[in-house]
Amino acid sequence: MITWSPESPAELTGAWARSGAMWLTGHRTGAPLVPVGEAASLAAWLAAHIEQAGAEAGRPVRVDGGRLLAERAALTGGTRQGRVSVGGGCQLLPTADGWAAVSCVRPDDPELWSALIEHELDERLWQRLATWLAGHTKAELEERVTLLGLAAGTIQGLPEAGTARVPRPGRPRSMRGMMVVDFSALWAGPLCAHLLGLAGAEVIKVEVPSRPDGARFGNQTFYDLLHAGHRAVALDPADRAGREALHALVRTADVVIEASRPRALARFGLDALEEVERGCTWVSITAYGRSVDRVGFGDDVAVAGGLLAQDDQGAPTFCGDAIADPLTGLTAAALTTSEPEGKGGVLWEVAMADVVAATVRGHAAPMAHVVPSGYGNGWEVDTGRELVPVAAPVTRTPTGTAPALGADTGLVLRRLGIAAP
């Protein structure tokens, strides 16, 4: 079993430099900045745990955990933009008493943000948001975004050591012969499912026909990277037959991955605790916890958890590309590839905010010097022990093409003896 041991500031800085995430941190025209905390080092350790679990099934998962934090940007061409996220959908803006990260990425978000600031939607939304935030406190913002279902995170300072609630992975277990039913979307959950598939599990992606995974409409190569080799099932839980098929599919699963709040699952007639009782491993990925009625995305949740960097003026900048997503996906996969206590079922609650907070607890802002590289247009960081080149993001090559929405519905249901809707 691979155990986690704290690393020195020099080792943590070196891990950031090698990961590709540091390349995405800081202002576009300046040097990359070193983020706070141990996320890059922890990502490498989590990947090593998953590799060992895969080896139990003769399927070692050889991925660079640190590089997973930045590989989407290698495909999209994203780069560091200071107080604008790599993807462009989130901005860091000053409030009356600090800073907040505001996400506007869903189709309905512009209208909702306009409602929050009590102004008609127009092309100056971001400017109007900045003006509104400058006159309101972080507490006022958080109260309103919770009510409207918007995503925003405020900077509260670094969490104290020992305050983050994230279980550490236990003894690795084989995923050979296990069936994973994946209800999640976007990045964190699908990355978890992808890593479990590489470790030997069969992965079945389940979508509602009217609400497919939004990542299908993003970068196709990235979607292929996470979903190639999986089966795609589309079922409508609003239809009686579709709901019965959905329930039957869940009952056959060894692992279920979802990223929904409990009340949404209840509308589908799904009960995580019932499935855990029969021996299922249930992975629940949320922004702030199953009991917290609040939404969040990778960039704003990372800021809320304290995972960011500071420029030479002491102002915050984003760390990496929606870094809470891949870090959470790695954490969820490492927990799933761990033996549950008592050999029965287990409910893994993986809150993105807790995951990122756990990587910065007890850490001060790093004191590292970044200088231009003597080899072209790159950068190097002086860790105090050595000069480490700041690596640009890189990506792996997809092993195939992801299946179309619902392409395998009939095949999967017939094989499992489930009546098709």
> What is the terminal-to-terminal distance?
45 Å
Write the CATH fold name of the largest domain. Answer: Rossmann fold
- CATH H-level homologous superfamily name of the largest domain: Crotonobetainyl-coa:carnitine coa-transferase, domain 1
Q: Summarize model confidence as the mean pLDDT.
A: 91
Strand order of the main beta sheet, please?
6-5-4-7-8-11
The helix/strand class is alpha/beta
Helix segment count? 16
The rounded Rg comes to 21 Å
What does this structure look like?
The protein has helices at 9-19, 39-56, 65-68, 71-76, 109-116, 125-134, 138-148, 188-198, 220-227, 240-252, 262-267, 272-277, 298-304, 324-336, 352-360, 409-416; strands at residues 90-95, 98-103, 152-154, 179-182, 202-207, 231-234, 255-258, 281-286, 309-310, 316-317, 346-351, 369-372, 379-382, 387-389. The chain folds into 2 domains: 9-80 and 167-410, Crotonobetainyl-coa:carnitine coa-transferase, domain 1 (Rossmann fold, 3-Layer(aba) Sandwich); 90-154, formyl-coa transferase, domain 3 (2-Layer Sandwich). The strands form 4 sheets. A 6-stranded parallel beta sheet has the order 6-5-4-7-8-11, sandwiched between helices. A 3-stranded antiparallel beta sheet has the order 1-2-3, sandwiched between helices. It has a 3-stranded antiparallel beta sheet with strand order 12-13-14, covered by helices on one side. Strand 1 and strand 2 form a beta hairpin. By secondary structure, it is α/β, with parallel strands linked by helices.
What's this entry about, in short?
This protein has 421 residues and is an alpha/beta fold.
